[in-house]
């Protein structure tokens, strides 16, 4: 496979900043960047990611999260970012699930979403997650197709927090 998931490190700093900047000219939320979009200090972001891995270093309403860059092997380019949440709280169970990811706007429509979804499912299995919950907005048909192609079964559609959009919840066993 041409893509691998690696934990962010100092070695990725230059590539990570290029990846982050690829979202600058696009008119959509970049919340899927795991906080990278909110920081100008990459080293500080790495420290935050490390703190997010254990319950002891998190606020009570947060759960441990493990972040990975999806890196294309042939050129070491970061093409996406993945968050794995082994344990879910009520909000995450309903609206986000175990897996969250985003693909760079410049790398979309190349089949990477499906590959990244498969790799994220494999990571979830490493965390001993037997029933993986993954969600997407109903309007995000590309994500839905990736989820379905990776064995996802739609279990429900619920109103998103804004009461306007519909969130689809899938399970992968």
Describe the structure.
About 30% of the residues lie in helices and about 25% in strands. The protein has about 170 residues and is α+β, with helices and mostly antiparallel strands. It has a single domain (about 5-130), classed as Aminopeptidase, CATH 3.40.630. The chain is globular, with a radius of gyration of 15 Å. The chain starts with a strand and ends with a strand.
Give the tags:
three-stranded antiparallel beta sheet; globular; 173 residues; four-stranded antiparallel beta sheet; Aminopeptidase
Secondary structure class reads alpha+beta
State the helix count.
5
What amount of the residues lies in strands? 25-35%
Major beta sheet summary: 4 strands, antiparallel
Mean pLDDT across all amino acids: 91
Helix percent band: 25-40%
Order of helices and strands: EHHEEHEHEHEE
The tally of domains stands at 1
CATH classification, class level: Alpha Beta
Give the number of DSSP strands.
7
What's the SSE blueprint?
Elements: E1 3-6, H1 13-21, H2 42-51, E2 66-72, E3 77-84, H3 90-95, E4 99-103, H4 112-126, E5 132-137, H5 141-149, E6 153-159, E7 166-172
Antiparallel strand pairs: 1-2, 2-3, 3-4, 5-7, 6-7
Helix pairs in contact: 4-5
How would you summarize this macromolecular structure in one to three sentences?
The protein is of the alpha+beta class and 173 residues long. Helix content is 28%, strand content 25%.
């Amino acid at each position: 496979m041409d893509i691998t998931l690696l934990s962010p490190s100092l070695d990725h700093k230059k590539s990570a900043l290029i990846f982050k900047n690829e979202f600058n000219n696009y008119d959509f939320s970049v919340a899927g960047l795991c906080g990278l979009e909110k920081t100008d200090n990459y080293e500080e972001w790495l420290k935050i990611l490390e703190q997010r891995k254990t319950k002891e270093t998190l606020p009570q309403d947060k759960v441990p999260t493990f972040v990975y860059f999806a890196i294309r092997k042939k050129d070491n380019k970061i093409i996406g970012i993945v968050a794995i949440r082994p344990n879910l709280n009520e909000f995450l169970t309903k609206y986000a699930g175990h897996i969250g990811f985003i693909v760079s706007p410049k790398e979309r429509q190349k089949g990477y979403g499906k590959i990244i979804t498969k790799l994220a499912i494999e990571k979830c299995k490493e965390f001993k997650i037997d029933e993986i919950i993954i969600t997407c907005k109903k309007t995000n048909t590309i994500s839905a197709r990736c989820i379905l192609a990776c064995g996802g079964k739609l279990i429900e559609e619920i109103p998103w927090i804004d009461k306007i959009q519909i969130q689809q919840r899938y399970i992968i066993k």
